[in-house]
Write a structure and sequence with these properties.
By secondary structure, the chain is an alpha+beta fold. It has two helices and twelve strands, in the order H-E-E-E-E-E-E-E-E-E-E-H-E-E.
């Protein structure tokens, strides 16, 4: 009996993990009209991107440019069913950095803090730019 209970518990745990992983996958599509930095590491050129998320890692794939990048989210964001998808960037001069991907539709998004820059950059006023996106059913 103890063995059967252990097997049932293991099966339930496996199914719960599989259900969580399947529901955590999100796909967003957005046309970004400027180059941007992801997670402080990679600069992506302007273009239309398909952005997928799996377990807190966001993957960026340029449709026209075929550039690929990824960003591990620092924090998770929540959305309401009525929220629309959008990407948010912090821009200083000609340099923009990804701050959040918000899929909307009740899906969880990702957030990144503003990258640290030189003292002269820190004194420059940042502007927040929001780009509308589309939540895909892929």
């Amino acid at each position: 009996m103890k063995s059967l209970n252990s097997k049932l518990f293991a099966l339930a745990a496996t199914l719960a993990i599989a259900a969580t992983t399947a529901s955590a996958q999100v796909t967003v599509k957005a046309a970004v009209p400027f180059s941007f930095e992801t997670n402080g590491h990679r600069t992506m050129p302007a273009g239309t991107y398909v952005i997928t998320q799996n377990a807190g890692v966001w993957f960026f794939s340029g449709e026209e440019t075929r550039h690929k990048g990824m960003a591990v989210q620092v924090a998770r964001t929540e959305s309401k069913k009525t929220d629309t998808a959008k990407l948010t960037f912090a821009c200083k001069g000609n340099h923009c950095a990804l701050r959040s991907v918000e899929p909307g539709g009740g899906e969880a998004g990702g957030y990144w803090p503003a990258p640290r820059r030189s003292k002269s950059d820190a004194e420059e006023l940042a502007r927040i730019v929001t780009i509308p996106a589309i939540l895909s059913a892929e």
